[in-house]
Amino acid sequence: MTAKWIATPKRTKEILETHGFSFKKSLGQNFIIDANILYNIIQKTGIDNRAGAIEIGPGIGALTEQLAVHANNVIAYEIDQRLLSILKETLAPYNNIQIIHQDILEANVSEMAKAHFKPGQPIHVVANLPYYITTPILMKLLREDLPVMRFTVMIQKEVAERMAAAPNNKRYGSLSIAVQYYTQAEIVMNVPKSAFMPPPNVDSSVLKLTRRERPPVQVIDEDFFFDIVQACFAQRRKTLRNNLIGYFKPSDNHTISDGLKQAGIDEKRRGESLNMEEFAALANTFYRIIENDM
Ligand code: SAM
């Protein structure tokens, strides 16, 4: 049965050779050649035949094909012009796929979603992301208010661990907070290098991000909250106080002391020990102090 799928070493080689396609490392082109792994990924998404799927980087269509079989319709963004004619051929048996030739970072995904998905349709992002821009892509899609219920993405293992990390874990940092502010993050699978052509230099994991209905904490100003979180992790080994001195002016010494005290947080702690509630309390306290000073 799997012989018909694009995601086999034999079929992938044939497609690439027929079209004289050479991989562009600069575009993060590592294509999946294992249909069982794709099947497992689809199972993890929870997609059913009502779902709309958005894919970033269809390559020669290995994952796109599986999405076409399991979802209602698929929209896929591909930046590499050379892949368009290949996709036209490999995905010819499916009539529920639309390829958009565009850099995802430039795309107006919200307008696209309005045009291609029905109101109330469950929308999923599913992708084997180009690893060189994983974080910008996910942060763009998370910060835009898109009607996406879940992201199931293959990314570099280390980045997946950073995004899903809990306090006091060595991978916990501002990226963990940024991702977990919008979603519940869970690593659902590790994928061997041998599942790709060519094999990547790094290990890979599948990360499942389920969008929260609302953030788990209330912050007065989101940008300021993320600035404070980033400042607290500026140098991991430094205490909160010392990192915050780098963010505020030296003359704001009293603001730092007052803020930490009012938020009930010991100034000798390090960023990695604070949970999201504590970061929110700290940012909101600083925000009020600064507002009152003006
Ligand atoms: N989905 C295919 C698979 O799993 O076999 C290919 C995945 S490959 C890791 C990443 C794909 O993203 C490539 O097809 C690449 O050309 C495309 N890509 C890279 N940068 C992109 C961007 N900024 N916007 C859209 N697609 C991009």
Topology:
Elements: H1 9-19, E1 31-32, H2 35-45, E2 52-56, H3 62-70, E3 73-78, H4 82-90, E4 97-101, H5 109-116, E5 123-128, H6 134-143, E6 148-156, H7 157-164, H8 174-182, E7 183-191, E8 196-197, E9 204-211, H9 222-232, H10 240-247, H11 253-262, H12 276-293
Parallel strand pairs: 2-3, 2-5, 3-4, 5-6
Antiparallel strand pairs: 1-8, 6-9, 7-9
Helix pairs in contact: 2-3, 9-12, 11-12
The structure holds S-adenosylmethionine.
S-adenosylmethionine (SAM) binds near residues 27, 31 and 57.
Share of residues in helices: 40-55%
Mean pLDDT: 96
From the 3D structure, determine the CATH topology of the largest domain: Rossmann fold
How do the helices and strands follow one another from N- to C-terminus?
HEHEHEHEHEHEHHEEEHHHH
| Small molecules in complex | S-adenosylmethionine
Shape assignment: elongated
Question: What is the number of domains?
Answer: 2
CATH superfamily of the largest domain: Vaccinia Virus protein VP39
Class from helix and strand fractions: alpha/beta
Alpha carbon gyration radius:
22 Å
Question: What proportion strand?
Answer: 15-25%
Under the CATH scheme, which architecture of the largest domain would be assigned? 3-Layer(aba) Sandwich
